[in-house]
């Protein structure tokens, strides 16, 4: 599956999908739409990087390149940023440039990993005789791949470092990744393991004892649900380092802090990894990105907040925070105002942009792609099949745009 983008959510802070984790190449620009409904690229300080000329939203810019969907040709086009964006290549499906290499599906329907010049550095049709069906972005130098309906990892040389034998898996973060060897939480006898970037299994746990509450380590810690359904933090060896008076995390851990959700109160609060409650669970909405803390008590009035809960200033609309992967994430906040969107600085002042006018922002950041073998219902194209790759690509694009 792809990590599906949400309109206006700029690099979601709390995503638990397979791709959203790990060290990520800096995103230097994101998409914006002008009054003529054309898409371009702008940085977090409001500077136009690519003039609006595209009918579809480009992806964020990473490693100096971006993708745009071309509906007429049923392809994704790769462009290099410059005075005039240069077309590098066309692909049937694409992931993202979270690392130096990006997963794509070439014109033959086979998974490749390309660099930012479009050169194929890795080609994967089969692993140990099993057809490769999906490939995910590189995080911490490793990419999650699926072959024979099982998950494993390759390194940047294309070598298999974790065999494709697991029933599910998530990308690396903090040099660690989580893999299942069962059907998930409902399998009481099932197990999950944590591996490092060398492919070593650091520990294995049973679901009946503890279950991951997130799918990525942050700052050396992983939140888990214990058998009593309470939340705890474990270290890279699987040892419990702190039991928390919280039910679930609602954001990743940043600088030892995270947003939590209290199911009894049905509200959000802010807590440290030491278990100290900085803000009790009383907020309808609460978001934190390591620089800005924003929230609302009633889902109508939104404020920038201090860690003591002081209302520093009120937003004119709904505030969206950039993720830490975005260059300038700590300088601006995206705010929905009426039918449009503006950038404001840390004091709440509107940031002047070079765009003459605009009415919305959007970010599309792919994380994985599916080969023709996967989309053909398990056939390599030599036999009749029920699935139609072209219909899949069109339906997927419709859901995004």
Structure, described:
The chain has 401 residues and is mainly β. The chain has one domain (27-400): Methanol Dehydrogenase, Chain A (8 Propeller). 4% of the residues lie in helices and 44% in strands. It has helices at 372-375, 389-400, and strands spanning 27-34, 39-42, 48-54, 61-62, 65-70, 75-80, 86-91, 93-94, 102-105, 111-114, 120-124, 126-127, 130-139, 142-147, 150-155, 160-166, 168-169, 176-180, 191-196, 201-206, 210-212, 222-226, 231-234, 240-244, 248-249, 257-262, 267-272, 277-283, 285-288, 293-296, 303-305, 311-314, 318-320, 333-337, 340-344, 358-362, 368-370. Strands 12, 13, 14, 15, 16 and 37 form a 6-stranded antiparallel beta sheet that branches. Strands 1, 2, 3, 4 and 36 form a 5-stranded antiparallel beta sheet that branches. The longest helix is centred in the C-terminal third of the chain and has 12 residues, at 389-400. It is flat. Residues 1-21, 379-387 and 397-401 have low confidence and may be disordered.
Unreliable spans are 1-21, 379-387, 397-401
Strand content: 35-45%
Q: What about the largest sheet?
A: 6 strands, antiparallel
Q: What is the approximate shape?
A: flat
The tally of structural domains comes to: 1
What portion of residues is helical?
under 10%
Gyration radius, rounded: 22 Å
Distance between the termini: 17 Å
Q: Tell me how many strands there are.
A: 37
CATH topology call: Methanol Dehydrogenase, Chain A
CATH class: Mainly Beta
Query: What oligomeric state do these chains adopt?
Result: single chain
- At CATH level 2, the architecture is 8 Propeller
Would you tell me the overall average pLDDT?
A: 86
- Total helical segments: 2
Content-based structural category? mainly beta
